[in-house]
Amino acid sequence: MINVVYVIAAALFIFGLKMLGSPDSAKRGNLLSSVGMLIAVLATLFDQQILSYTWIVVCVIIGSGIGAYAARTVQMTGMPEMVALFNGSGGIASLLVGWAALYHADISAFVAFTVLLSIVIGGVTFTGSLIAWGKLSEKMPSKAIVFNSQRLVNGALIAAILILGIMFCNNPSVSSPVLILIILLSLAFGIMAVIPIGGADMPVVISLLNSYSGLAACAAGFAIDNNILIVAGALVGSAGIILTNIMCKAMNRSLGHVLFSGFSAVKQSTKVIEGEVKPISVDDAYLILEAAGNVMFVPGYGMAVAQAQHAVRELGELLEKNGCEVSYAIHPVAGRMPGHMNVLLAEANVSYDQLIEMDDANPRMDMVDVAIVIGANDVVNPAANEDDTSPIYGMPVIEVPRARTVFVLKRSMAAGFSGVDNPLFFGENTRMIFGDAKATITGLVAEFKG
Amino acid sequence: MDAIYLLFILMLSIFLGFEIISKVPATLHTPLMSGANAISGITLVGAVTSAGAELGGTATFLGALAVIFATVNVVGGYMVTDRMLGMFRKKPAGAAK
Q1: Phi then psi for A297, rounded to 5 degrees?
Q2: Structure confidence by residue, pLDDT tens digits, A119-150
Q3: Strand residue runs (E) in A393-447
Q4: Active-site residue A284, yes or no?
């Protein structure tokens, strides 16, 4: 009986995810998937295996309270941190479920192995997500943390988990000290795996941890012999893997390179950039914009930091009123998680059909009068196309130099998160507008109004 | 036999997941991620089983803790996804002003 309900729940998850594929149906899709979750949980509650409800009710109320509060109060700019924390709590929950499964009578070697998997993946997801959260919220340095024997330490950790794992599978027992050791090592490995990854690579890490949280649930499903956990966990696992893959492609790097690049020194470009920086005032920028017939905004993480998205939308509307065509070109890895910029601009009421992907933006570039780069750096760096000694050579970028004029809104001349110089700033048709992005945009808006 | 049957489910679900999700446009990647994240809170079902099955003090405690974390994941994940998706509009509501 309960399995029938699980089948329905699984179908709802699948439909829900499918509907998340289009902005029109996405909200209903999410609702559908939450209904699936609700009936799966309710069916489990009414299953005869449950003997005591007190703890469950108390814990569900506590958990819902925390989740609902967090979901309501989080700022859209803080979304990557939030998702990291949710990933982490999913991970630790799977670890605990796997652990508790050991209290069932007679554990076969297969069950022991799946318990082991859910504990290791869950543990890595938990601490890995916490570190990702720390880096994203700047509670700890977002730079890659690298030390000399890092590779050795990580290798030793993996070897230890493997050996202890084999010992545990041969003799599975809850009271085994091996179990506690495995849990601790998994937690340690989660920390070690994420600290060498730098801030700009966070979209990859978040996607990967998302995938892990699904895989952990999947492993827990094997441990307790529950098929809905396996189906749902596998769906999430593959979603995360796809996103990870997209992010890696957008940076022209392999997953291995992202995860382990902190271990090897970043090679520096040998090319000397020629040309000079040409600053421009807000007044002059206004005159150029007023005459423009086609403007493309290229936002990056800096727009999120400056909270400039609302001002940007206002400027976009004024430009449209002025008879100008406005679009927003979004690089897949702009920001700190996949689709981060899209959510910020959606929050600011930008219509989603104005948000275009890199592959659509580049062919249009020759028709663009002004490309406005807001707080983006590496994703518009022409060195990725031209300079084969550059560390980011080969990464697909938004080719703003082909626009008639490029405005770069920037706080100072500092390099991007990858620490790579950007020849764009020295380009013939580039004009730099220094200062806080929000203040600059607000200034432009004021010029248009007055 | 049971393990083989579960592995079958696993394999089919992975293929299905790849099929569905590779069609999601970049604009919706953040909601997709948080929505998928909420689904990974399905481990709540397992947590509920552990917490309520009276397997002894420690197991109940572990299960109860798992219930808390999993509900944070489920409730928070769905609500935040819903909030985000509510912001995706075709005609900007502010444009009329």
Answers
A1: -90, 140
A2: 999 999 999 999 999 988 888 877 777 777 77
A3: 405-410, 430-434
A4: no
Q: Counting beta carbons within 10 angstroms of the beta carbon of residue A71, is it exposed (0 to 12), middle (13 to 18) or buried (19 or more)?
A: buried
| pLDDT tens profile A297-356 | 999 888 888 888 899 999 999 998 888 999 999 998 888 888 888 988 988 888 888 889
Strand A294-299, strand A370-374: pairing: parallel
Q: Distance from B4 to chain A by nearest Cα, in Å?
A: 11
With beta carbons under 8 A apart, name residues in chain B contacting A220.
43, 46
CB contact under 8 Å between B77 and A40, yes or no, is no
Mutate to test the interface with A, among B27, B62, B79 (most CBs of A within 10 A): B27
Helix B43-52 and helix A202-223: axis angle, to 10°?
A: 40
Distance set, CA A384 to CA A41, A261, A390, A397, A431 (Å): 49, 18, 7, 7, 20
Interchain pair B54, A338: CB under 8 A: no
Among B34, B40, B50, the residue with its CB nearest the CB of A100 is B50
Q: Are A127 and A191 in contact (CB under 8 A)?
A: yes
Structural tokens at position A6: 């699980």
Contacts of A393 (CB under 8 A, 6+ apart): A383, A384, A387
Q: Tell me the ipTM for this assembly.
A: 0.90
Q: Is B76 exposed, middle or buried (0-12, 13-18, 19+ CB in 10 A)?
A: buried
Residue range A345-378, pLDDT digits in tens: 988 888 888 889 888 899 999 889 999 999 888 8
Nearest CA in chain A to B85: A27
Cβ <8 Å between A103 and B59: yes
Across A46-193, where does the E strand assignment appear?
A: none
- Asked if B75 and A64 touch (Cβ cutoff 8 Å), the reply is yes
Three-state DSSP state, A218: helix
The two three-digit tokens of residue A185, written as one number: 């090592």
Please give the Cα distance from A259 to A237 (Å, whole number).
18
- In sequence order, the β-bridge partners of residue A294 are A325
- Tell me how close the Cα of B86 comes to any Cα of chain A, in angstroms: 7
Residues of chain A found within 8 Å of residue B58, distances taken between Cβ atoms: 103, 174
